[in-house]
Amino acid sequence: MPDQPVTEAGPGSPVVGWRWMGSSEPLFLRVAEQIERFVAGNGLAPGDRLPGERELCELLGVSRASVREALRSLETRGLVRVRHGKGVFVAAPDEGERALQRFSRLREVGLEELFAMREVLEVPAAGWAATEATDEQLASLIATFEQLEQAVRAQAGPEQLRAMDARLHLQIAEYANNRFLTMTQTLLQEMLGRSMDTTLSVTGRPARSVREHAEIVNALVAHDPARARAAARRHIRSTRRAALNRVAEERQRSVPPG
Amino acid sequence: MPDQPVTEAGPGSPVVGWRWMGSSEPLFLRVAEQIERFVAGNGLAPGDRLPGERELCELLGVSRASVREALRSLETRGLVRVRHGKGVFVAAPDEGERALQRFSRLREVGLEELFAMREVLEVPAAGWAATEATDEQLASLIATFEQLEQAVRAQAGPEQLRAMDARLHLQIAEYANNRFLTMTQTLLQEMLGRSMDTTLSVTGRPARSVREHAEIVNALVAHDPARARAAARRHIRSTRRAALNRVAEERQRSVPPG
DNA sequence: GGTCGTCTAAGGTCTGACCACTTTGTGTCG
DNA sequence: CGACACAAAGTGGTCAGACCTTAGACGACC
Lengths: 258, 258
Known about the structure:
2 copies of one chain form a homodimer. Chain A has 10 helices and 3 strands; from the N terminus they run αβααββααααααα. By secondary structure, chain A is mainly α. The first copy, chain A, has a 3-stranded antiparallel sheet. Chain A is elongated. The model of chain A is unreliable at about 1-20 and about 200-205 (pLDDT under 50). The interface of A and B includes residues 104, 113 and 190 of A.
């Protein structure tokens, strides 16, 4: 009985058309999309009111429960504001919220861009951390470093190595005492992890990586910002070189010259 | 008539207790909170299953519609995953998503931190933009600059000045051709705007601001990265000094020395 | 032994009713 | 005439119960 054209949907407004059209995507999701389209299509601006729940039901040919679930979803996403006794309104997500949403959709960023950002963020972070880190924090940092060292010696899997590497850098960022920086660095590491085929993660030369990390940690322990910055810069550049080379190799292997 | 104990809620499970207990917070919101608490309280880990919808209804003493709306909200926030025919599960938001959420909750960041980040981000951005911006982009940048200049000449309100200032800097970041940087810069500007009392926005000395912006724009037009970086650094530092001074004054005025 | 139904539990949707909040208009009283 | 009170309409909020669809498990049949 499903997979049939919905009953008397005359040529007037076949908004839904076919129910269960194969995809079996939940109804409320499609309703949410349709409401989004409605807003965009009719050029509704933030603050504008859109049809009431009951009206939307009729418009879209679904029950009120589905419309309400769709609205809850849209409201949670900040696209819509539902006000008891007044109606449903297009919300005005502040610029920051919108940027965040675009951020979360920004899945694919080039490796070059990400590595450029690493240098931008991590070099000053290392400098600040050298100035500001407490002895306690330095001890914790050393512990993390030693774990990394041990993991390399034990020839741990690349997945694990990458996680430890990320953790070390994140820790340094944290000790720079700048919450915005910490957040951004977290995001960056996350996207880097996703962008690199996990297998070619820790740049290939674990031994070298350990040496470079050691230089950074030593500079931090010595409270020497300039040396910390330099060490961080060297490390990131070397990592970048290795990663990009790998990617190039990979590409060459899959698409042989012809 | 509200503000009364809900009817025959015996001592069995007075989970809800009083409806409309003053706050009139929608039920489904409270339900969502309770489910969150349930997950946290019982130490449920990502992947764990939580009680079915009908069970939750009974547990919380509400209807299934409310439970479902709450779940929709939680699902949209990525805290929960609802799977047809199987049940409701605690979701495993990836680290990036969680960082993003913390980011959006991170409302109050010190001005010092934000200005430090401005320097970190905008100085290299100016350098890259000097190298990479196309003639077309430079023309657009100049247009923006002239609008700012004109606004200053016309003694526009601080609100508007700040918006134009933000737009100019955002544009530069964009021309650096690094999507991650652009996003981060957008977020930063947004938080700066929120952190400064809007009135003390554009640092006070509009004329000086225009001159400094002019230096940056000129360096970009000349495709001179070093000069662009230097100009950007000067501008940000001068802006920071002015802003922090203002804040200090403000504080002194409201809390006179004792 | 593998395959195919059937049964069960779970989410998905619908219906219609009623409750609560807002606004508005209207009517009464000062 | 004006101000306040109340009632009605419109809109979101909640409830109750029913039925449908899906996923998985279990058992009968080939």
